[in-house]
Amino acid sequence: MSSSPLRVVVVISGNGSNLQALIDYQQQPDCAYQIVKVISNRPNAFGLQRAQQHDIATAVVDHTEFNERETFEQALIQHIDSAKPGLVVLAGFMRILTPLFTGHYLGRMFNIHPSLLPKFPGLNTHQRALDAHEHEHGLSIHFVTAELDGGPIVLQARVKIHPNDNVETLQHKVHQQEHLAYPIAVNLFAQQKLHFANQQACYLGQPLLQPLQLEELV
Ligand code: GRF
Questions:
Q1: The architecture CATH gives domain 6-216
Q2: Using a 6 Å cutoff on CB, does residue 102 contact ligand 1?
Q3: How far is the CA of 172 from the centre of ligand 1 (A)?
Q4: Are the C-beta atoms of residues 179 and 21 closer than 8 Å to each other?
Q5: What are the residue ranges spanned by the domains of the chain?
Q6: Does 145 contact ligand 1 (Cβ within 6 A)?
Q7: Ligand 1 nearest atom to the CA of residue 139, by list position
Q8: pLDDT digit string, tens, across residues 179-205
Q9: CB atoms within 10 A of CB 11
Q10: What number does the ligand 1 atom closest to the CA of 21 have?
Q11: What is the tens place of the pLDDT at every residue in 12-62?
Q12: CB 141 within 8 A of CB 156
C-alpha cells in the first residue's frame, strides 16, 4: 500500500463478530485501514478479548458510571479522539447517541443496522420483518446522523425470507452478510471512494442516489 492506512476506532457493546470480520479483513492485500483501538461501554464485552488477541488497544467507558448521557459521551469522545481516527465504526454499540456525539463525528462515523432501512429502525428488526410478512430482509451500513438509524445509507445486503425462517435463522443469515459487508464499506471509505458531503453519501465523487448493493461489489 502506498499511503498510510486509515486509522479506525471500533466502538462495541458485546460479542463483536462484526469487529472480528473487520480485524480479519486487515489480512487482505487491498485493505486500506488499520483498527487502532476498540472501545466498549460494557466491561465484559467479548469483543474486547477479540481485540486483545490481535494486539489492538482497548478501552472501556462504562456508561453506568455516568449520570448524564452527555458526560458519558464526552468521555467516549476523549477516548476515541486520543487514537486520532479517520473513521469511527459503530459495531453493535447499543447506546442512543445525542447530537453532541453524532455532530462531532458527522461524515466520519458508520453504523451497521440489521434491516433494509428505512424499514425497521430501532430494535427487534428480525421479528418485525417476520411479523410484517416481508419477503426479504437484510442490513444497512450508514453514516451516523442525529436521527436514529436515519443517516445516509452507503451499502445494503439482502437476504430472502423463507416461510420456515424464524428470528434465529434470519439473524444468522443477516449476520453472515454483515461480516462480508462491513469490511467492504469501511475499506471503500479508507480508499476515499466513499465520503459524506452536503448531508449525502457520495461514491466515486457523485451523490449516491441508491445504496450500494453488496452483491454488486463481490
Ligand atoms: C449486529 O447485528 C449489528 O447489525 C447490530 O448489532 C449486532 C452486533 O453484533 N447493530 P456483533 O456484536 O458484531 O456480533
A1: 3-Layer(aba) Sandwich (3.40)
A2: no
A3: 11
A4: yes
A5: 6-216
A6: no
A7: 4
A8: 999 999 999 999 999 999 999 999 999
A9: 25
A10: 13
A11: 999 999 999 999 999 999 999 999 999 999 999 999 999 999 999 999 999
A12: yes
